[in-house]
Amino acid sequence: MNIYLAIIIGSLLAVWFLNLLSDRLSALAMRPAPPEELSDVFDAETYAKSRAYTLASMRFSMVSETFNTLILVTAVAAGWFNVLDQLVRAAGFGPLLTGLAYIGGLALVSSILGLPFEIYHTFGLEKRFGFNTTTPATFVLDRVKGLVLAAIIGGALVAGILVFLDKTGPYAWLLCWGFAVLLSLGLTYVAPTWILPLFNKFTPLEDDELRDKLEAFADKAGFELTGIFVMDGSKRSTKGNAFFTGFGKRRRIALFDTLIKEMDADEIVAVLAHEVGHAKLGHIKKRLVTGVLKAGAIFYLMSLFLDSEGLFAAFGMQDMSLYAGLVFFVLLYTPLSLILSVAANAMSRKHEFEADAFAARTTGRPETMISALKKLSVSNLSNPTPHPLTVWLEYSHPPVLARIRALS
């Protein structure tokens, strides 16, 4: 059997099985009553709803993942990638346009196959548990805008990579790496002004008391805030959140309107303190450096397999090409991707604990950070007791119970 085919099929099935096992163990780990630390915010009815939401989310996840895995395995085994390749080649485009058409076609098919699951998740699962506020018009506009952005940004990235690989010799991976990093940094810089407003409205925070408290904390922590904005998160969901976006003079904090509605001013200051902690403790820079190094490693590994006849034979391809090699490498990369994802999540969870501790220390009120975490847990119906395997595989943030205990 082709070794590449064995690795790809085996890794796809292994990831599917790990996710299935993870969900099953987390379902068994759920307690009949809320943990003592959360008993003041989870009454019996709310906790029962949280359990039901967690189980429903697991069932949905496994159905969608099983479908996606089955489609991928079938596509590889049945030679569907070659069928699409022959179709785009028959159109008579040049190498670059053919490559863009091939990768764009795969992306479009993936999007179409995933659409029924997105619709059910938004208007079925999320609506059933009281989260969804998305209208059909907003849903459609989001998908159209997303496809247009993916075509423009993704098309530019793929086109640049294909040109470098075709024209610049054995060290093309270095140029691909640099191009991808520059494009990513550029998008991060312009996102607050040009991209995010395409999907949400950002308005300056009008609550004078809250703004004064947030600015006072930022001054105390020696952190420059270039803007505090309220995002209309309620346009799509009742869940609350907050995040920093951009960097340099375009760095700003966005508070979901749902978060402002759920929390008092001191709790929102604690949330801000947590986000500031990520910056002051160097987490953002570490993640950036790690991401850049990871991208470099990926492009180097990619350069080793792009012209592998065995890899193309695994997909039943009649012709070899750079663009198909990119797609096949992504699938071949699945085992390493899982390992790197687990490592990145572990680092992220460590950073979250550190940012919580920073917020508790700089505000002098760890109980306020705990209160904010509890409210987020209840409003999002999060599972307070996931199985360790689930945390290890999927969680970029520690479970709320672990965070509360670390702050107590």
TrEMBL record:
What family classification does the UniProt entry report for this protein? Belongs to the peptidase M48 family.
Classify the protein's membrane topology as the record does.
Multi-pass membrane protein
Transmembrane region positions?
6-22, 60-81, 101-123, 144-165, 171-191, 288-306, 322-344
Q: Where is the active site?
A: 275, 356
Output the InterPro entries linked to this UniProt entry.
Answer: CAXX_Prtase_1, Peptidase_M48, Peptidase_M48_N
Q: What is this protein called?
A: Ste24 endopeptidase
Alphabetically, the GO molecular function entries are: metal ion binding; metalloendopeptidase activity
Biological source species: Pseudodesulfovibrio mercurii
Q: How is the cofactor bound?
A: Binds 1 zinc ion per subunit.
Question: Which UniProt keywords are listed?
Answer: Endoplasmic reticulum, Hydrolase, Membrane, Metal-binding, Metalloprotease, Protease, Transmembrane, Transmembrane helix, Zinc
